Amino acid sequence: MTEKIGNVKLNMCCYKGEDLYCDGDIENDILEIVKNHKSSEYNSIISKGKRWELMYHLSEYRENILNWYPVDSDKTVLEIGSGCGAVTGTLAERARKVTCAELSKKRSTINAFRHSELDNIEIYVGNFQDIEKVLDEKYDIVTLIGVLEYASSYIASDKPDIQLLKTAGGLLNEDGSVLIAIENKMGMKYWAGCKEDHVGRYYESIEGYSNTNSVMTYGKTELEEIFAEAGFSHSRFYYPYPDYKFAERIYSDSYLPKAGELGNNMRNFDNDRIITFDESKAFDTVIKNGLFPYYSNSFFVELKR
């Protein structure tokens, strides 16, 4: 039930023999890349390949959402939805142990080859609802990076987002933290003409996902209500800019952006867009009116019970 790629363990006890989602044949290309190239070569490969999927899965910028967050060398981490390992490395290089939970065997294999030299990673392959039942320890940090919005796809519950958060909270040590990265449904880029990140339709999140059943992001107030219902008494918001996928800066409520700082907004790599207004000027307006936290394109949130 356990395979090994280099030093990384692949635990297959919850795998049912089929990957239920993927990005297509590009994942085979990514697997060959991580098998045959060093991470220092990825930027060149991304530049030559000119494919969104290469950039999304392999860019070192993906680590920026977590590489600033303090992770002590004695800490244990549970990474839910680890994918191709975009942030697994930055966690494993600092933590004592990283346990991953990932639905796709192909993506888990990519992750394992990518970090095969690290000896503190174990990847459980399968649905998280099955995996969490066999985990026999508590963790100092549980991460949900780009995961909460997909809760309805793999959590059987009337309130899958609440259930996922409750389960994550139940896996924490005392004083442990759940870390969440997610797009803001009210993000400035959506008003200004970017397609919704997950479904590729204009204004879909702003209009309340009226044409969507499989994915759901939230505004800041909605998230605060969800966190409280899931039993978390503390939530600390951060605001990755331009977004959490390729963050260049991380703002917080104690250090918000100033007018004139947010000028790097034409960063839609995976979809065409329209331009309805100047995002930089609009950001200046919401900043001056104290509304930036509600129009940030993404959130990073630290939760404690």
List keywords for this structure.
single chain, alpha/beta, Rossmann fold, 305 residues, ten-stranded mixed beta sheet, 12 helices
Describe it:
This protein is α/β, with parallel strands linked by helices and 305 residues long. The chain has a single domain, classed as Rossmann fold (3-Layer(aba) Sandwich). It is 30% helix and 22% strand. It contains 12 helices and 10 strands. It has helices spanning 26-36, 42-49, 52-58, 88-92, 105-114, 128-134, 151-154, 160-170, 188-191, 220-229, 279-288, 292-295; strands spanning 2-5, 8-14, 76-80, 97-102, 121-126, 139-145, 172-183, 234-241, 249-252, 298-304. It has a 10-stranded mixed β-sheet with strand order 1-2-5-4-3-6-7-10-8-9, with helices on both faces. Strand 8 (234-241) and strand 9 form a beta hairpin. Helix 1 packs parallel to helix 5 (105-114). The longest helix is centred in the N-terminal third of the chain and has 11 residues, at 26-36. The chain starts with a strand and ends with a strand. The mean pLDDT is 96.
